[in-house]
């Protein structure tokens, strides 16, 4: 079962259903950021019954001719029933007669199995039971054995990975091989590290302490590849934002300078989208008493056939939610109402129509769910003083925790 993604199974539309801040197949996307609550509205996963497993394997073999024999899959499931999860659309699912439409199969490897996998000697077509961990044993690694999930079922991959975050599997690294370009796209989208020559085509996703899960608004790392987003933190970053917006709004849309650079840039948070290390887009966020305004989205013309705009908007929404905002407001060009609707924005009752720089706009509003790690009173005060968008990482002032007070603010002689 070394071939695990069929050519026809994944396209841009399917990838959109994998995560809340979904990106193109060329962008890396952290597994930990997948919005399971959204996926679960439409899909269910369950352990397939014997007859259902047989029909799934038979259906999948048309696209994946190198699938292991049914008896092999049954033997693996007998050793660890968590190895295969069926996927079904919720509106078709009947608990009295569950029937899967797709599946994800994983091999729970023990230490010897993982060593053999890395050495290239592991037989994935006929996995030895003595190299597999049982259901109640913590595996040394999880090998993504096979994925069969057409179209909207692709979101079920995220549900299965979430299931494999239970205490027994939490922190265990994923491994996989890609036998098709679509398989490679899915793996890199989910954040798997591409294989080196020495790894023999083995993709790796580290879930332990070795890997820091970066939020979508702080995913850029110098020297990286693909699409990423970062908060503007320096005058050089602000210069990048100015250049991007001048190219899009002033050069392309003939927007007057004083309308585009309206005096709000120094009182706002800016996000910069990168392709590799090249600035490709930007977004501005301004914060008010009970809402945040998402605005000034700009993407360079040569990058508009990518998911850059989606990455920026989703990063902006996530940043606002972490800051505790649940109402997000914006002015959308009428021709782009559909685009903003994809994120949950809607033209609300009483929304006004506006004209800016000769374009027609309308007010839109999004009611977001509260963020589970929203920053508010009562959180660690060292988190609050960290750099904007870097609340997930210890900052320079965190080091002060371990230092003794050598300059007390109260005169010890005068103190009672």
UniProtKB/TrEMBL annotation:
Q: Does the keyword Transferase apply?
A: yes
Q: Which ranges carry the N-acetyltransferase domain?
A: 228-369
CDD domains named in the record: NAT_SF (cd04301)
User: Mind listing the UniProt keywords for this protein, alphabetically?
Assistant: Acyltransferase, Transferase
Which Pfam families did the record assign? Acetyltransf_1
Q: Where is this region: Disordered?
A: 396-416
Gene Ontology terms, MF aspect: acyltransferase activity, transferring groups other than amino-acyl groups
What name has this protein been given in UniProt? Answer: Predicted N-acyltransferase, GNAT family
Q: Which domain of life is it from?
A: Bacteria
């Amino acid at each position: 079962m070394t071939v695990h993604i069929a050519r026809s199974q994944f396209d841009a539309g399917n990838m959109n259903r994998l995560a809340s801040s979904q990106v193109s197949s060329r962008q890396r996307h952290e597994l930990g950021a997948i919005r399971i609550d959204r996926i679960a509205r439409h899909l269910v996963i369950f352990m397939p019954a014997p007859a259902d497993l047989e029909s799934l394997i038979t259906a999948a073999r048309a696209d994946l001719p190198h699938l292991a024999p049914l008896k092999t899959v049954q033997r693996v499931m007998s050793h660890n029933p968590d190895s295969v999860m069926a996927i079904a659309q919720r509106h078709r699912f009947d608990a009295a007669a569950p029937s899967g439409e797709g599946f994800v199969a994983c091999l729970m490897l023990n230490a010897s199995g993982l060593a053999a996998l890395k050495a290239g000697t592991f037989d994935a077509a006929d996995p030895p039971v003595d190299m597999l961990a049982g259901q109640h044993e913590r595996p040394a690694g999880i090998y993504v054995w096979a994925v069969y999930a057409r179209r909207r079922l692709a979101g079920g991959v995220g549900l299965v990975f979430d299931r494999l975050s239970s205490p027994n599997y939490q922190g265990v690294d994923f491994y996989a091989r890609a036998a098709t370009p679509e398989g490679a796209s899915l793996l890199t989208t989910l954040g798997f590290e591409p294989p080196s020559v020495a790894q023999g085509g083995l993709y790796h996703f580290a879930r332990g302490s070795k890997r820091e899960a970066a939020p979508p608004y702080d995913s850029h790392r110098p020297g990286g590849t693909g699409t990423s987003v970062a908060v503007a933190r320096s005058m050089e970053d602000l210069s990048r934002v100015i250049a991007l917006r001048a190219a899009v709004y002033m050069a392309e849309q003939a927007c007057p300078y004083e309308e585009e650079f309206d005096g709000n840039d120094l009182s706002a948070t800016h996000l910069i989208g990168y392709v590799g290390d090249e600035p490709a887009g930007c977004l501005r966020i301004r914060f008010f008493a009970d809402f945040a305004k998402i605005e000034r989205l700009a993407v360079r013309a040569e990058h508009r056939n990518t998911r850059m705009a989606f990455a920026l908007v989703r990063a902006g929404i996530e940043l606002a939610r972490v800051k505790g905002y649940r109402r997000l407001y914006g002015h959308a060009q009428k021709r782009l109402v559909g685009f903003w609707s994809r994120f949950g924005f809607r033209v609300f009752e009483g929304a006004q129509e506006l004209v800016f720089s000769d374009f027609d706009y309308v007010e839109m509003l999004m009611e977001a769910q509260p963020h589970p790690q929203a920053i508010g009173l009562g959180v660690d005060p060292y988190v609050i003083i960290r750099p904007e968008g870097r609340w997930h990482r210890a900052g320079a002032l965190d080091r002060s925790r371990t230092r003794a007070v050598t300059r007390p603010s109260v005169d010890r002689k005068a103190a009672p």
